[in-house]
Amino acid sequence: MEALPDEDFIYLGDTARLPYGTKSPQTVARYSQQAAEALAEYGVKCLVVACNTASAVGLPGVRDRIEGVPVVGVIEPGAAAACDASASGRIAVIATEGTVRGGAYQQAILRHRSDAVVFAQPAPLFVALAEEGLCEGAIPESIARHYLEPLFDGATRSPSRPDTLVLGCTHFPMLAGTIRSVVGPHVRIVDSAKTTAHAVREQLQEQLQPAAGVVAGTAGAVRFLATDSVDRFVRIGSRFLARPIAPEEVELIDL
Amino acid sequence: MEALPDEDFIYLGDTARLPYGTKSPQTVARYSQQAAEALAEYGVKCLVVACNTASAVGLPGVRDRIEGVPVVGVIEPGAAAACDASASGRIAVIATEGTVRGGAYQQAILRHRSDAVVFAQPAPLFVALAEEGLCEGAIPESIARHYLEPLFDGATRSPSRPDTLVLGCTHFPMLAGTIRSVVGPHVRIVDSAKTTAHAVREQLQEQLQPAAGVVAGTAGAVRFLATDSVDRFVRIGSRFLARPIAPEEVELIDL
Predict the structure, then answer these.
(1) How high is the pLDDT of residue B154?
(2) What values do phi and psi take at A162, rounded to 5?
(3) Which residues of chain B are within 8 Å of residue A125 when distances are taken between CB atoms?
(4) Which end of chain B has the lower number of beta carbons within 10 A, N or C?
(5) Which of A125, A139, A229 sits opposite B23 (nearest CB)?
(6) What letter would DSSP give residue B220?
(7) Residue A76 pLDDT more than 80?
(8) CB under 8 Å, gap of 24 or more: what pairs does B87-90 form?
(9) A106-131 mean pLDDT
């Protein structure tokens, strides 16, 4: 919304079946396809798979289901940004269990930079912390140390230490302050949400008509769809989006 | 299995859509009914809704769907056991967000003991800790203090302090040691799994034929059904059951 203020957005959260990060690739792919089909019915001109786990395993299936609409995942932009940010090529990725196990970040980073050394670490408790809004203080710090100290031990400027950390899950930027306090000031932290927004902007400039909203005078409209619990969507979504979401803005749908 | 060694068991884990603890009552009820219908097809003689959240909101719907089969939830036995265990009637319950919000434990305890004072505390991070197997050490201890110190502050033998704590989620007994270390030695800890097993034994003695397995010579057979990820079911299930589960024992089904 910041990168493309003239566009209209429709956001679907599969809140009935989240989290995706602990599911099998087959199930994530199936659920992602169902979500993409539901969004395609709204006549979208571009689809962002804004979940790292779904991007890691579900992109080919999503592309098959909604032909003619460009599909942007979050792994490729995140991997490209990490390769640009890293001086040493030593890149750490924290993500869900499913994203790490599938190896999508590792492969994407090596495609961009064949000399890279990738350290991938599942950090599943970060998801629960972000959902609960427990992002600062002793508890998230001790969990951040648990996941990150094995990757970032040793002297701050040691050449063997990664110089870049990819936040490979939509939830992790909520914990950015705590993560920063553990890895120290010299590590480049890459948030794939930002780099994905830029990738979408490029895609729209290259391939697509200008924003329909600009013509219709409704530029920047946002609509939310959820598969369960409008209350919880409003409560947690407002925190993630950093602006209040009203219950009337959220429509309950079934996938 | 310990309480009824002659019975055969069939266990269904809706691993594709877990956790239930953060979903709306409507969705939990719908998923619970689907699970009950799937189990009814196996000709069960008794159905245990062995999930606190599903018991809290899904029992009536489950009973409607599988008529003629007794359905035992975990809330009633847990509440009864807590009322028996408590001298003061001051009872704390930790559970998922959904279980606490629905008020099922609070109501069940007050039905058993109208003078009880119930303190209900959601403890959602305990679910993630148990799933990850991070049950001992500094991290679970700090989280246990976060949830439990507000309930159990003050002098250990203060009359205003609860004297009984109900572990109102299937996952929480995995953290019993850590929970004990926070609440101290004088609090009675009630695990609704054990009290439910006794309730099932009573139900079977009162109403039902003796175990079919005893006649067929297959007593004690166990079968596992999961809706996703046999690997993960084997890994986490073995820890919860405290015995190895082989992948061949687990059948993948769709709900």
Answers:
(1) 73
(2) -60, 145
(3) 125, 128-129, 132, 134, 139
(4) N
(5) A229
(6) T
(7) yes
(8) B87/B163, B88/B159, B88/B162, B88/B163, B89/B113, B89/B115, B89/B116, B89/B117, B90/B116, B90/B117, B90/B119, B90/B160, B90/B161, B90/B162, B90/B163, B90/B164
(9) 96
Query: Which of B65-69, B145-149, B156-160 bottoms out in mean pLDDT, i.e. has the lowest?
Result: B156-160
Alpha-carbon distance A22 to nearest alpha carbon in chain B (angstroms): 8
Residue in chain A nearest B141 by alpha carbon: A139
The answer to whether A167 and A191 have CB atoms below 8 angstroms apart is: yes
Under a CB-based contact definition with an 8 Å cutoff, are residues B1 and B196 in contact? no
User: How far does the CA of residue B234 sit from the closest CA of chain A (Å)?
Assistant: 13
Whether the Cβ atoms of residue B71 and residue B49 lie closer than 8 Å to each other: yes
Return the residue of A nearest to B28 by Cα. A16
What is the per-residue pLDDT for A156? 76
Structure tokens at B217: 């010579």
CA distance A205 to B72: 60
Token look-up 């559970």 returns B95
d(CA A30, CA A62): 9
Residue B26: list chain A partners with CB under 8 A: 228
pLDDT at A70: 94
Q: What is the pLDDT of residue B168?
A: 96
List CB contacts of A229: < 8 A, sequence separation 6 or more: A15, A16, B22, B23, B24, B27
What band does B31 get if pLDDT is binned at 50, 70 and 90? very high
- So which residues of B are the catalytic ones? 51, 169
- State whether A125 and B132 contact (CB < 8 Å): yes
CA-closest candidate to residue B18, choices B169, B167, B146: B169
A188-191 and A164-168 as β-strands: parallel, antiparallel, unpaired? parallel
Q: Cβ–Cβ of A132/B125 closer than 8 Å?
A: yes
**pLDDT greater than 70 at residue B158:** yes
Query: B38 CA to chain A: closest CA distance, Å?
Result: 19
Strands (E), chain A: 9-13, 47-49, 71-73, 90-95, 117-122, 164-168, 188-191, 222-226, 250-252
Chain A positions touching B27 (Cβ under 8 A) are 16, 228-229
Contacts of B231 in chain A (CB under 8 A): 24
Look up residue B173 and give its DSSP letter: G
Q: How many CB atoms lie within 10 A of CB B141?
A: 17
